[in-house]
Design brief:
The complex is a heterodimer of chains A (407) and B (229). Chain A is of the alpha+beta class and 407 residues long. Chain A is built from 13 helices and 12 strands. In chain A, strand 2 and strand 3 form a beta hairpin. Chain B has a domain of 156 residues: P-loop containing nucleotide triphosphate hydrolases (Rossmann fold, 3-Layer(aba) Sandwich), CATH 3.40.50. A 6-stranded mixed sheet of chain B has the order 6-7-8-3-9-10, with helices on both faces. Chain B has a 4-stranded antiparallel sheet with strand order 2-1-4-5, covered by helices on one side. The chains are: A alpha+beta (407), B alpha/beta (229).
Chain lengths: 407, 229
């Protein structure tokens, strides 16, 4: 018997028990669909997160306070550190430096109140973060020097407080009760690596430091550094390290600061989302396993039911191998159909998840990768083969005399 | 010089049920001439089913030799026995044993498929169905056929590989007397025209008396032979 005939016979026999075959296939469909959908959502989440980190710009460095666990009493980063890094003679690879402090505070306007991320920044921040404005101006050097009570707001703040995004220049909102005049509105950025990038209020660094976010001795939360070009990132990182070691008087190898590049963030985020994806896929794979047990169960029933048929086939010359192939073909076909339908269903689920995410303003586009499809196909066929082996073997090893006598 | 298609020497089949030995066949010496039609009779428990299983290559003897069509069968492994059944033996069962999902044609073709024959299968199967008078029922499924017709399909299936012997186990047992007689006539005419050796296992004296030779079995031994008038 060649494979073509075996497939035709298997199809006939599966067709004879439509309900039973259908339910068995359903088990595999659900398993494969779950695996496909979970992997798709996982890799979609990964793309979103790494994408938003990549959106930071590949020539960006983040300087944080604190080193590894051995460093005691790490000194805080200060505006002085930021100014030193900005010195083109000490750090020729550095283009722009933006110190940053931030806190979540309440923002009110005529009775409306929201919690928003208040960022104290310098004018360089606009370019370093690649922001642009819907209208108005960004924080200027005069605002810094004069500790001006001015604010540039994100669109989410605009929407929630004012209900619209234009014509807001000159309005006065209150941050922790203190009045601030709106001088600009930022263009929408969507969700980002550090939370919503639209629910922010940007104010002059000096104002934030002196009036809203009190930090001792010119402390900053972190320093953003724009490097001249992406290939100078490592060199710039080295220059910054030397400046800070000198200023903080630390020993070599005991840095009390850390410098992250975009690649570092991407790598961290990827390892986290990989774990997430494997976890989700692993749980989904359990249902595929259950589907496989369903195949084994139904094949065992089928072998028992068809004992006489097996006896007859053996009597007219079927060898062990022929019977084995016959039943393995049936179980593989079951799982293969389940796999194909499951890929379709999983794809649809992933698509719907994407729609739901879009409806909730979350940027998540599930990705059904070729690798996921291959994995699901191979895995489900393997499940069919594996769980088909035992019943098929049982059929093949029946003695013709006993099989023929079976009622 | 006789032309034996079946020769057995001291054929024994012993089942062990715990401590007890059951001698289903206890030394059967039997020669059957090529082209003859023979019946095996005996009360239940006499060992005639066991003998049929051994002669039909469905089972191996515990002891003794069985030579079918010049080939020593008693020492064969499972796959060799399967091949022997495919090429040398045709079976006709009391309950027909057709595949209910398949057409008459596919049922008749099945031994050719297992025999690895790829060309001219359909033609051969149609010829076989013609020779049992079912040329117009080729695409019918067993459920659409009467008992007598189903048994004819089974006979066509048994014939298709031109076997050395046809084993018929109570071939008329599930049929009414009219179709039973028709099937018996068909079997007798096949023996006459195609010179196929046919062995009928039965306990119906009227069936047995239509054959050339009756072998009586009792307690696993051949206890007598008679030639019907």
């Amino acid at each position: 018997m060649n494979i073509g005939q075996a497939v035709i016979e298997a199809l006939e026999s599966l067709n004879a028990n439509k309900m039973r075959s259908g339910l068995t296939i359903l088990g595999i469909v659900i398993g494969v669909a779950a695996v496909i959908a979970m992997l798709a959502v996982g890799s979609g989440a990964q793309n979103t997160i790494t994408g938003s980190i990549s959106g930071l710009g590949s020539n960006l460095l983040f300087v944080f306070r604190g080193g590894n666990d051995d460093v005691r009493n790490p000194q805080p980063l200060t505006r002085g550190d930021a100014e030193a890094i900005a010195d083109p003679f000490q750090a020729p690879s550095v283009a722009l430096v933006a110190p940053y402090i931030s806190s979540n505070l309440s923002v009110t306007f005529s009775g409306e109140s929201i919690n928003s991320s208040i960022n104290g920044v310098t004018p360089e921040y606009l370019e370093v973060r690649n922001y642009s404005l819907l209208e108005g101006d960004f924080i200027s050097e005069e605002n810094i020097l004069g500790r001006g009570s001015v604010a540039v707001i994100g669109v989410e703040v605009a929407d929630k407080l004012f209900g619209h995004r234009d014509g807001l220049i000159g309005e006065t909102l209150r941050i922790e009760g203190q009045p601030f005049r709106v001088i600009g509105v930022l263009t929408p950025r969507g969700g980002g690596a550090f939370g919503s990038e639209d629910n922010i209020v940007v104010i002059p660094f000096s104002t934030a430091q002196s009036r809203l976010i009190r930090r001792s001795s010119d402390r900053v939360d972190f320093i953003l550094v724009q490097v001249i070009s992406a290939d100078l990132v490592n060199q710039a990182s080295e220059e910054i390290s030397q400046i800070l070691r000198a200023r903080h008087r630390t020993d070599l190898g005991a840095d009390d600061f850390q410098i992250f590049s975009q690649q570092d963030f991407v790598a961290t985020a990827q390892s986290i989302t990989n774990v997430l994806t494997i976890f989700l896929g692993g749980i989904a794979a359990i249902s595929l396993l259950v589907g496989g047990i369903g195949i084994m169960n139904i094949m065992l029933v089928s072998v028992t039911e068809r004992t006489r048929e097996i006896g007859l086939r053996k009597a007219i010359g079927a060898r062990k191998r022929d019977i084995l192939v016959q039943f393995l073909t049936e179980s593989s076909l079951l799982s293969m159909f389940g796999g194909i339908l499951g890929i379709g269903l999983g794809w649809s689920i992933a698509y719907i998840v994407g729609l739901i995410a879009a409806a909730n303003n979350t940027e998540l586009i599930p990705v059904v990768g070729l690798d996921a499809i291959l994995l699901a196909t191979i895995f489900s066929t393997a499940v069919g083969l594996f769980f088909g082996i035992y019943p098929a073997n049982r059929a093949a090893n029946l003695q013709p005399v006993e099989a023929l006598r079976h009622e | 010089m006789n032309d034996w298609v079946i020769e057995t020497r001291n054929l024994k089949k012993i089942y062990k049920m715990g401590e007890v030995e059951v001698r289903a066949l206890d030394g059967v010496d039997l020669n059957i001439e090529r082209g003859s039609i023979v019946s095996i009779m005996g009360p239940s428990g006499s060992g005639k089913s066991t003998l049929m299983n051994l002669l039909g290559c469905l089972d191996r003897p515990t002891e003794g030799d069985y030579i079918l069509d010049g080939v020593q069968v008693s020492q064969m492994n499972d796959d060799q026995l399967a091949a022997a059944r495919n090429h040398m033996v045709g079976f006709v069962f009391q309950s027909f044993n057709l595949l209910s999902r398949q057409t008459a044609l596919a049922n008749v073709e099945l031994p050719l498929r297992y025999g690895g024959i790829t060309k001219g299968r359909k033609q051969k199967a149609i010829e076989a169905l013609n020779s049992v008078g079912l040329g117009d029922r080729v695409t019918h499924r067993p459920t659409e056929l009467s008992g007598g017709q189903q048994q004819r399909v089974a006979i066509a299936r048994a014939l298709i590989n031109d076997p050395a012997i046809i084993m018929a186990d109570e071939p008329t047992g599930n049929l009414d007397s009219k179709s039973g007689k028709e099937i018996m006539d068909l079997i007798l005419s096949l023996n006459k025209t195609r010179k196929t050796t046919i062995i009928i296992v039965t306990h119906d004296q009227s069936i047995a008396s239509q054959t050339q030779r009756i072998i009586n079995l009792s307690d696993g031994k051949v206890v007598g032979e008679e030639v019907p008038a």
